Amino acid sequence: MNKKGKCFIIVLLMLFLLCGCQGYRGLDEMVIVTGIAIDKTPENDNYRLTFEIVDLTVPVKEMGLKGQVIESEGKTLFDAVRNAKKRITKKLYFGQAQIIIVSQEIARNEDVGIIIDWFLRDVECRETMCFIISQEETAREMFEIEALTHPLVSTEINNILELDQEVTSTTLCVELYKAFGGLHSEGEELALPVIHKAINNGKTVGETNGMAVFKDNKLVGFLPPNESKYYLFAIDEVKGGILTLSAFGEEHNISLEIFENKTGASFDYKDGKVKVTVKTDTTVYLGEVMRPYAPMDEKEINELEDIAKSELKKNISNSIKKVQSEFGADIYGFGNMIYKKDIKLWKQLAENWEEHFRTLEVEVESEIEIANTASLK
Amino acid sequence: MGRFFKKKQNLSSNKNESTNETTDKPVLFDSLDKNVETISELFKDVDILRLKYINCCDRRLTCCIIFCDGMVDQSVINESIINPLMLSSVKDTDSVYTLMTQVIQIGGMKETDNVDEIVEAIAYGDTVLFAEGLGQAIILDTKGFQSRPINEPENEKNLSGSREGFTESLLVNLSMIRRRVLTSELKMKSYTIGRRTKTKAYICYMDGLVNKQILSELYRRLDKIDIDAVLDTNYITELIHDSPWSPFRTIGYTERPDAVVGKLLEGRIAIFLDGSPAVLTLPYLFIENFQSSEDYYLNFYYTSFSRMVRIIGFFLSVIVPSVYIAAVAFHHEMMPLQLFINITSERQTVPLPASLEALIMLFVFDILRETGVRMPSNIGQTLSIVGALVIGQAAVEAKLVAAPMIIVVALTGITGLLTPKLNSPIVYIRLMLLLLATAFGFYGIILGVSCVLIHIINLRSFGVPQLTISGKLRFQDIKDTVIRAPWWMMILRPGFAEDRVRSKEGGKS
User: What is the least distance, in Å, from the CA of B280 to any CA of chain A?
Assistant: First the structure.
């Protein structure tokens, strides 16, 4: 064989043998996990994992899609995952898992970074899984709810969360990689979406309920939906939703639908004090005016814009003040902003940033434009 | 292995030389009897040979005409040869030219003293006239054999445009071309291939458009052919192929005269072979696999879309089974959840692994296809029922095969039929990609596709790269590729043509 042929074979072998591919795994060798709930057993402090899996014992095309729940226990998360194999014939497959629900108890007592670790290390798990805090006693309860629009609870919760930001702007779906970023970046604390049970037509269903605030990677409190919306305003994550306000002599309620919002934050260092300015610029549509029909003129619209501006400004600063005083956790990432723009200043402040944050002067400026009044015929 | 082949080739070429040396040109004699005896001896045991002696020119001259029964037009022989010979009263009979110019009333004639030529003429349906005392014979054109009537070609049906198709008769085929190009620029050169069959071939091209280098390269390759018989143009295709082991075509073929004329006017060369309705055209670009002559007869919006469908169909046909296997066996996270669940649910109850299932089902489809081609057309319905119902539906109901696999195989099969000129590469590339996907998933597919692309880029047709890849993308070069631009935009011919300008004004008034 000549030199060329030898080279060819060597290249071919390298291409095929050094590529480090995963092995062949047939679809009938796996159990599809769609969601994971993490709890702790009170007796021996083990982790108890609850997996929602797709029920494939009967063909989907005959019986429709159905979920099933598998529970397992272990000293560590990975241990618990492998222990699940004791009850089922096939290995769990995490490539299509959508949500991780963590119980309040774990979130309050343990560093969430510890929980995330296995999911980030594992090959199969996607980093786009949604990381959620359950407001109920345990996380596994959430898999017992009756899903209204999708046969699988995990998909239902995932879809609720993903669309919530665009329709109500009260919760934010935090993917695993973003949560990891929130845990490890300087001058920023983590906030995660919250779900709880609600009663709907006599059935227990799942519902989003604002955001959970973390400090030093541990849960410290919750922002209910009416406050979390303004948190989303402050961090520029508002993509829709309704602003309600009273105008025209207080007795008439108005709905403004948010079309577009842009928030920018900046800071100023003067006389040893940091001052943060948050500027919001919102375009809204006039959606609803709850008063007997009367056409609006230019003047009234301008008046309405002014009321909306001051209302929004008030709400955002109130919500920031609450977080400052109650939790002292910089979930807005103001510290991170200083870290990115003025590293020297950050080095001075970093040591006791929590104190600085609590006393931080935050000024909110809001701009609202009513682009469309959807005039009645 | 290589050495072995080389040896064998040497052996065969030696043999040829020796046979060439022994055949000396036999020459005619003056004596009529001797000449007739020579021919009769050569056609010994050929019982359709007919001899007829005639005393002509007031019995001054004895002639003999020789022809093959059934190959000639009897009425021409009777009225234009025998009748004038018998009635003529020409006095001067010591030269064939007298007979040729004053007696025989026939258009095509030629004098010769070469016995080989005479034998070939008799075999091809001509009549040969020998006369006493003349050392030459006259070949008279009396061809009159039957051939198939001109029909629409079955394999290249068009919605619009000419309905003519080539037949097995060389001269009829040439007439269909000649009729469409009424200038002297159209050249038709005859050529003979086949040591034993002496098959007639014609090489046609437009003088002034054709690239002379390609033409001389064609002659060089044709001269090298050493084979005893050519029964179809595919013999020639394989013998003068640029890369003999490649499954891709580097020489085109068509059964449509209008398509051949179109190719000639783009500066291509056409090879006609007697007895074959398929005409070769060269050089052949890769994009011609997706072109059809109809593309130029219908609205350019419509045909541009059809072209894209054909090209996408080719890619689908090659890649769909392997992508399915890669997704199902390696990259489960690639599918959306609902699709993933549905496929998984289907696959729970089937016995075979997905890739084996794919191999078997593709093979079954190929069996069905091959049967469809070979069997008599009146039982075609049975086949489609057996194929579709028994193998498709029943196999899924019996849980032998997963339903998605049937969809994949059906898609592969249907798209494979879109480009009949790429049939042979499709089968092999599809199989190769399937095996690579089984072993390495998408990584394997990417490797396989890269290999195929490298191969195609290296393909040449008579020195012209099949995929004309230049560093710069010029709009003029892609006007007749994925899209078919309107005629007023296509003002240039393909790059290999000698004269590139098709129309100066762009044809638009």
Answer: 35
Q: Do A24 and B349 make contact, defined as CB atoms within 8 angstroms?
A: no
Range of the domain at B433: 298-368+395-493
* Contact residues for A70 (Cβ-Cβ < 8 A; gap 6+): A31, A50, A51, A53, A84, A87, A88, A92
pLDDT in the model for residue B471: 58
DSSP string covering A44-86: T--EEEEEEEE--SS-HHHH---EEEEEEEESSHHHHHHHGGG
Task: Report how far Cα A359 is from the mean position of its chain's Cα atoms.
Answer: 27
Two tokens, residue A341: 């723009």
Contacts of A96 in chain B (CB under 8 A): 332-333, 337, 340
pLDDT, one tens digit per residue, over A97-147 is 999 999 999 999 988 888 888 998 888 888 889 999 999 989 999 998 988
Contact A126 B333 (CB under 8 A): yes
How close A162 comes to chain B (CA, Å)? Answer: 15
CA distance B429 to B448: 8
Residue A21 has pLDDT above 70, yes or no: no
With an 8 Å Cβ cutoff, the interface of chain B facing chain A consists of 328-330, 332-333, 337, 340-350, 353-355, 438-441, 443, 447
Q: In A, which residues are within 8 Å of B349 by CB distance?
A: 59
Burial of B212 per CB tally in 10 Å (0-12, 13-18, 19+): exposed
B274: closest CA of chain A, how far (Å): 43
Tens of pLDDT, residues B361-397: 999 888 888 888 887 777 777 777 777 777 778 888 8
Please name which of B435, B453, B455, B449 lies closest in space to residue B362, comparing C-alpha atoms: B435
Q: Please state, in angstroms and rounded to a whole number, the distance separating the CA atoms of residues B272 and B190.
A: 9
- Asked if A225 contacts A210 with a C-beta cutoff of 8 angstroms, the reply is yes
B271 and B303 housed in the same domain: no
Interchain pair B329, A22: CB under 8 A: no
Q: Do B341 and A54 touch (CB under 8 A)?
A: yes
Please classify residue A345 by burial: count the beta carbons closer than 10 Å to its beta carbon, then call 0-12 exposed, 13-18 middle and 19+ buried: middle
Question: Which positions ≥6 away from B286 have C-beta within 8 Å?
Answer: B248, B456, B459, B466, B467
Q: How many domains does chain B have?
A: 3
pLDDT digits (tens, 9 = 90+) for B291-302: 888 888 888 899
Contact: A24, B340; criterion CB under 8 Å: no
Q: Is A285 exposed, middle or buried (0-12, 13-18, 19+ CB in 10 A)?
A: middle
Residue B356's φ and ψ, nearest 5 degrees, are -65, -40
Partner-chain residue, chosen from B345, B353, B441, that has the shortest CB–CB distance to A26: B353
- CATH number for A226-377 (one of 3.30.300.210, 1.10.10.10, 3.40.630.30, 1.10.110.30): it is 3.30.300.210
B122 is a domain residue? yes
Position B472 scores a pLDDT of 63
Each residue of B421-441: b (16+ CB within 10 Å) or e? bbeebbbebbbbbbbbbbbbb
ipTM of the complex: 0.84
Provide the percentage of residues in chain B whose pLDDT is more than 90.
27
